[in-house]
Amino acid sequence: MAQTLTSTPVAEIAPRRNGRWRAQWSLFVESRMGPIGLAILIIVALVAICAPLIAPDGPFKLGATRLLAPGKEGHILGTDHLGRDMLAQIVYGARVSLVIGIVAATISLIVGMVVGSIAGYYGGIVDMVLSRITDMFLIIPAFFLIIIIVATLGSGIIYVMVVIGLTAWPASARLMRAQAMSLRERTFIHALRALGESNRKILFRHIIPNGIQPLIANASLDIASAILIESGLSFIGLGDPNKATWGRMIYDGRTTITTAWWVSVFPGIAIIITVLGFYLVGDGISYVLNPRNRKVRT
Amino acid sequence: MGRYISRQLASIIPTILLSIVINFMLLHAAPGDPARVLAGKDNPSEEQIAAIRAELGLDRSLPVQFFSYVRELLQGNMGQSLSFKQPVFDLIMSRMPATLLLTVTSAILALAIGTLLGVAAAQRAGTVKDAALSFGNYALFAMPGFWLGLILMVIFSSKLGWLPTAGMRTVRADYTGWRDVLDVMQHMILPVATLTLVQVPIYFRITRASVIQERQQDYMTTFRATGMPPTHTFRRYALRNALLPTITVFGLGFGFVFTGAALVEIVFAWPGIGRLTLDAVFRRDYPLLLGVYLILAIAVSIAVMLTDIVYALLDPRIRLR
């Protein structure tokens, strides 16, 4: 019963979804950076999905001449020191990078969302304790922590993703806290509380869904930084040895870089393009969310 | 101001404590028992292990162990390095100057360049030049530092031969005095350039956003309405206020530099903390890894605290709050 009573007024206050989406999309296009980023990401995602079509032999097929220059013997991007096709490795590497980025960012988003919303909604001593912990994690040199944990537990891709996710959450927590603090003073939340809705329900049904947007922009940056961190780990030999990752390719090409630059250069370009895509999309979303750019008040 | 500083000093204690707790937990998570890890030898004798065990109170409850661990740390005892057969603390401190040379130089250069570019872009906000600068910055920010380092190394030392490839000094040259300083500076150019380039976007973005925001403030409109020359009001008022946020970023950015520096040091075989970390990873030298982590955590906390104090010196609103 309480359910129907509470959900009606909220639904009436909320603007019509369709019109809001359209307005947001046009702002996203207006941001200029956003659409470019989205186009880049769609291409990268397509490449990752179609990897078996582009490189039917998989990333680890040996047998070609070693260190072939790009374009020679049908290897568009050349081969590495073991005679593996660079294009095939890069195409399959896109899968690994995207999965690592998305899983790590999702973990950090969830942790940040929960910590931040609880801190902002409850306030007082809860907020003080959680905010201090957040600040501490913000300062800690995460990369070195990740190095130790991966060196201790092993460099399976799962560990790498989880550890990156668990060290990246403070930024989302801060954003969510600010959102929750402002939302909790809104009339509809007061109304819900007056109607006797439980705090947990208010948090998860109303505060989080209404305040999550800035976190989405941040998640885009989190994906980008997770991809960069993973490449850094692979570069010092702590990546998953069973996966073709871009960082590992740069690492492999390091010793032969003066004679065969392509082994390190192409995976680096792949990282830059993908990470840039996520940054630009994040920029576009931030533009949409910035109230200064809003034309119609919602 | 004195009260503000003492409050700041007190506020980093929990952060440092947390780093110690994490370190303590990691020590217990590392394979083998902590005494064996801290003994730091491939085959420590049973007496040595027993001695460390007694020192740390490993046979007692975890809280007791924790306090013994903190006591040892306060005396600068972080255990023995497995691979270097030296006390971890001394080892890290001997490598610290080389790393600070790279990080501090590049952070200051990046602050200067990034801020200038940020102001330039903000003054042209909305134009094609601004868009190009912003896009270029994103591209730079998307670059893994170690990759950029490799590329610069191939171009400027391998192909063109203008600069030394690796290390901090010319091997077997044994320069002294000014010749030595010059030699180190020559070796610094590429790693510092790499680190500067990857940090510029941090300062660019914050400065650009902050300057744009400041120019839209009401007081700027009032100045314009009173007929004050725009360049004067911009330089004297808007710019000064707009540059404040960059200082905060400088502190936090310091943690980022250490990370970037570690990887760039590896590329250029620079004898700093990064190289040390790599060696520690390869030899699974846990006492050394934990020591590096702890010292960096403390260094970054102090850097953040110092920037907060500088901020308060420049902005009275902060210290009065």
Tell me about this structure:
The complex is a heterodimer of chains A (298) and B (321). By secondary structure, chain A is an all-alpha fold. Chain A has helices at 2-13, 17-30, 33-49, 51-54, 86-122, 124-139, 142-153, 157-167, 170-183, 187-194, 199-211, 213-235, 246-253, 262-289. Chain A has a single domain, classed as Orthogonal Bundle (MetI-like fold), CATH 1.10.3720. Chain A is built from 14 helices and no strands. The longest helix of chain A has 37 residues, at 86-122. With 321 residues, chain B is mostly helical. Chain B folds into two domains: 32-77, no CATH class; 89-314, Orthogonal Bundle (MetI-like fold). Chain B is 79% helix and 0% strand. Chain B is globular. In chain B, 40% of the residues are buried. The model of chain B has no long low-confidence stretch (mean pLDDT 80). Classes of the chains: A mainly alpha (298), B mainly alpha (321). The interface between A and B is large, with 45 and 48 residues.
Descriptive tags:
heterodimer; A: 298 residues; mainly alpha; MetI-like fold; 14 helices; 73% helix; disordered N terminus; B: 321 residues; 79% helix; globular
